[in-house]
Design brief:
The protein has 558 residues and is α/β, with parallel strands linked by helices. The protein is built from 13 helices and 18 strands. The protein is globular and about 110 Å long.
Length: 558
């Protein structure tokens, strides 16, 4: 018997560009019959997608393909949950319960599905639950219908890229690994632990961004994600950490050169066309952006597959309701039976009802425990969204501080809480009282409020006779504001060490010594760190003799 031939047409909309791939599968062979993109006019959104589907249909002359849409994570609702060990059908029902508790107003027509992540402790299952809302589901169905094609699957972009990577690389060979998939509008970052998904993050990208700015943003997000993700089981010997990136080695050489020096692992560029045969040799640009399109055309692992057309979560009537209906029907039949048989049936029904109540009490207890566990995850997620970027704040503060010859920082404490303003409390010494007003004017702006207090003249005749305290209130800024401030700071190069002057226009971002705890711990380790107006070369000057300053710093940390 000849193997069945399947024609998959995979389409992804990505910032005014509709990418497509026509993949013909015969058994284990996958051939690319056509691949490319259709560029949309400026300002057009997914509402115009049916126009470009018509263009693709006219271009390919393909009548009855199995249409697959690839969608980004930003178009769905998603959260993580830890569930007790259970069978597939029981797990699907637990997922539905969790989803409706998380989104009480979700429509019954919305599609809910899940995929497995690295397991929790004590044998618990950790899953990522996703929901495609009803209005978006209707849009995808309408687009397929307008083109006259059969909608076969709706898949997530980052899972399609993971599917393609698992076909080429044995991820379980490394305790920890990273997949970086860069698109036009955002980039997906997936961290693996022993080959299983541990963390997924989506990084929005600016429409116009230089290679340097893109590399800096991706580098920072990779470092933060590795800190948040679960560490590998055996980290005593610092095992190899590969960072996989789909694309062409020549196209991505500049990005790799900018990323690799400051990352803890080596970047490996993977060719996305390894598992495919091509019927033409047409050269494509931005090959890395076709990884998800190709991965969605292949069958994936059930554990990491999520399809909104064939979800694992199918809404069913509760087992309790089914049994109650069964008992009601049995009661109607028992009305015509003998009294003795009727009492026997009633007794059995009562016993079964008691058993159902016990089972229901156990399920309620499990749900209560799950709520406590998810509350911790939700709090961490909220903290990650609302936390102040302390590295950027310290960078900006160091550029505005008066020069080394005018001030010394004795101690500094940083505190913050989710959704509120952050605060930097500092104890400083100054060469003159005019430096205090200069400090306030330099630091204060639309996002920073400054209040000085405890002004005193401690030791006249010394280099720093004035002592004062400063409290800097920081309004949380969004990513766009931080990116603009960073680009503005990078635009003005900091002069070499031997040419730094004392005026405020040539201050360096490395005045603070490394090692600060961003959760509110004082940066002082028992000595007053001197704020230097020059590039930090990694050396620290420590004075262990000033016990009085150390006591003050401990009080500040409290």
């Amino acid at each position: 018997m000849l193997p069945k031939t399947k024609n998959h047409l995979v389409i992804e909309w990505d910032r005014q560009q509709a990418r497509y791939a026509w993949v013909c599968s015969v058994g284990a062979r996958n051939m690319i019959r056509a691949i490319g993109s259709v560029q949309a006019a400026e300002g057009e959104s997914t509402s115009h997608l049916e126009t470009y589907l018509a263009d693709i249909k006219a271009l390919l002359r393909l009548k009855n393909p199995e249409l697959v849409f690839v969608m980004p994570r930003r178009e769905i609702e998603e959260f993580e949950a830890t569930l007790p060990p259970s069978k597939d059908d029981e797990l699907a029902q637990l997922v539905l319960i969790q989803a409706h508790e998380r989104w009480p107003g979700i429509s019954e027509q919305s599609i809910i599905d899940y995929y497995h992540m690295v397991g929790g402790s004590d044998g618990m299952l950790r899953v990522s639950i996703a929901a495609l809302l009803d209005d978006k589901r209707i849009n995808y169905i309408g687009w397929a219908k307008s083109a006259g094609w059969k909608l076969s699957a709706i898949r997530l972009r980052h899972l399609a890229s993971v599917n393609l990577l698992q076909r080429q690389v044995a991820l379980a060979s490394w305790p920890q690994s990273v997949l970086l998939s860069v698109s036009r509008k955002d980039a997906d970052l997936v961290v693996f632990s022993q080959g299983q998904i541990s963390l997924v993050r989506t990084i929005p990208l600016a429409a116009e961004s230089t290679d340097q700015a893109l590399a800096e943003k991706l580098k920072l997000e990779i470092q933060r994600s590795l800190l948040v993700a679960s560490p590998p089981a055996n980290d005593s010997e610092s095992p190899e950490l590969p960072i996989f990136l789909f694309g062409d080695q020549g196209e991505l050489s500049e990005l790799v050169q900018r990323l690799e020096p400051d990352l803890p692992g080596q970047i490996r560029v993977i060719d996305p066309f390894v598992n495919f045969q091509r019927s033409n040799t047409e050269t494509l640009e931005d090959v890395n952006r076709y990884a998800a399109v190709l991965g969605a055309a292949l069958e994936g692992s059930p554990a990491t597959t999520l399809d909104f057309c064939k979800p694992k979560c199918v809404k069913k009537r509760s087992a309790i309701y089914r049994r109650i209906a069964l008992y009601a029907a049995a009661g109607c039949l028992l009305l015509g039976a003998l009294i003795g048989n009727a009492w026997q049936q009633v007794a059995e029904a009562r016993e079964q009802n008691l058993e159902l109540k016990r089972e229901l009490a156990k399920v309620d207890e499990q749900i209560a425990n799950l709520k406590k566990r998810t509350a911790v995850v939700d709090y961490v997620s909220q903290w990650q969204r609302d936390d102040i970027n302390w590295l950027e704040e310290l960078r900006g503060l160091s550029l505005r501080m008066p020069s080394r010859s005018q001030t010394q920082v004795r101690s500094m404490t940083m505190t913050s809480s989710p959704g509120r303003k952050g605060m930097i409390s500092m104890n400083l010494r100054a060469g003159s009282d005019s430096v205090i007003s200069e400090f306030e004017k330099a630091v204060r702006d639309g996002s920073h409020q400054v209040r000085t207090n405890q002004l005193s003249q401690t030791a006249p005749g010394t280099d720093f006779p004035w002592q004062f305290g400063a409290a800097i209130m920081i309004n949380p800024r969004d990513r766009q504001q931080l990116a603009e401030d960073r680009l503005l700071a990078d635009r003005y190069a900091i002069p070499p060490r031997d040419t730094i002057r004392s005026d405020s226009t040539q201050r360096d971002a490395s005045q603070f010594e490394p090692g600060s705890d961003l959760n509110g711990t004082t940066l002082d380790s028992g000595q007053p760190p001197i704020v230097e107006n020059e590039l930090n070369d990694g050396r620290e000057e420590v004075d262990d003799k000033d016990d009085h300053v150390a006591d003050d710093n401990k009080e500040g940390s409290k």
